[in-house]
Design goal:
This is Uroporphyrinogen-III C-methyltransferase. The protein has 255 residues and is α/β, with parallel strands linked by helices. The protein contains nine helices and ten strands. The chain folds into two domains: 111 residues, Cobalt-precorrin-4 Transmethylase, domain 1 (3-Layer(aba) Sandwich); 126 residues, Methyltransferase, Cobalt-precorrin-4 Transmethylase, Domain 2. The chain is globular.
Length: 255
C-alpha cells in the first residue's frame, strides 16, 4: 500500500510553499496538480516523477473530481507515493475534505499538509490585513458559489450583518450581485472593497473602491481574483508594498 499527501501549494508565490509541502513533492513518485499552483514548484520533484494535471477552470473541467479521487486511490493501492497538489489550502474551498473522505473510506494512508490560502495571502500582498486592532476583529472566508437549494438572500443577509471583513472566493462574475445584496441587507454603500487579481504573483493587480462603485472600477479584473470587503481595505493606502516592488523587479529584468 502506498500513501497520499494532500498538499496546499499556496497562493502563487513559490516561496510560500511550506517546508513540509516541499518534502511531500520530493518524496512523491506521482504528482496530481491543480490549475492554480505555480508550476515552478514541480521542478522540485525527482526526475522520474510522473505528473497528472487535474485542473479545473470556470468554463471546463479537465478531469472530473470523481476521476481524481479514483486515480489517487488506484495509484496508492499499487504502492505509489502520491502527492495531490492543490492551490492555497486543501481544506479552504479546495475540496480536500472530500478527497480525504474518499481516501479514508478506502483505507488509504494519507496526510494533510496545510497551505497558505489566498484569502490571507492575496490581501497581505496587496497591503490589506484581514484583521486590525482598530478596524476588524473578525473575518469570514466565504465562497460566492452557493449550493443548489440554498437560500441565497438569507446567506448574504447573515454575512452583511456579521464579520467585519469578508474575503470572498470565486466571486468576480457575481460582483454586481454581491455588492447589491450586501447593501440591501445593511452594509454601508461606502464600505471599502478591493479586488486582487493573481494575488502573490508578479502579475498581481489590485483595484479598490466601495460597494457602490467597485463594479465599474473593476471591469477589467478577471478570475482568479480575491474580493475583500471591509474597512481594513483602507490600510492599503499606507502599507501597500508588493506591486510596486514587483514592477521595479520586472523593469530591471527588462533592461
Amino acid at each position: 500500500m502506498g500513501k497520499v499527501y494532500l498538499v496546499g501549494a499556496g497562493p502563487g508565490d513559490p516561496e510560500l510553499l511550506t517546508i513540509k509541502g516541499l518534502r511531500a513533492i520530493k518524496e512523491a513518485d506521482v504528482i496530481l496538480y491543480d490549475r492554480l499552483i505555480n508550476k515552478d514548484i514541480l521542478d522540485y520533484a525527482e526526475p522520474n516523477t510522473k505528473f497528472f494535471y487535474c485542473g479545473k477552470d470556470p468554463y471546463r473541467h479537465s478531469l472530473p473530481q470523481e476521476e481524481t479521487n479514483r486515480m489517487m486511490i488506484q495509484l496508492a493501492k499499487k504502492g505509489h507515493t502520491v502527492t495531490r497538489l492543490k492551490g492555497g489550502d486543501p481544506f479552504v474551498f479546495g475540496r480536500g475534505g472530500e478527497e480525504a473522505e474518499q481516501l479514508a473510506t478506502h483505507h488509504i494512508p494519507f496526510e494533510i499538509v496545510p497551505g497558505i490560502t489566498s484569502g490571507i495571502a492575496a490581501p497581505a500582498y496587496a497591503g490589506i490585513p484581514v484583521t486590525h486592532r482598530d478596524y476588524s476583529s473578525s473575518v469570514a472566508f466565504i465562497t460566492a458559489v452557493n449550493k443548489p437549494g440554498m437560500d441565497k438572500e438569507a446567506y448574504w443577509q447573515h454575512l452583511a450583518q456579521g464579520p467585519e471583513t469578508l474575503c470572498i472566493y470565486m466571486g468576480v462574475k457575481r460582483l454586481p450581485e454581491i455588492c447589491e445584496l450586501l447593501v440591501k441587507f445593511g452594509k454601508n454603500p461606502q464600505t471599502p472593497v478591493a479586488l486582487v487579481h493573481m494575488g502573490t504573483a508578479t502579475s498581481q493587480h489590485t483595484v479598490t473602491g466601495t460597494l457602490q462603485d467597485i463594479t465599474n472600477k473593476a471591469k477589467e479584473i478577471t478570475n482568479p481574483a480575491m474580493i475583500i470587503v471591509g474597512d481594513v481595505v483602507n490600510m492599503r493606502e499606507k502599507i501597500s508594498w508588493f506591486e510596486e516592488q514587483a514592477f521595479k523587479e520586472n523593469v530591471n529584468l527588462a533592461k
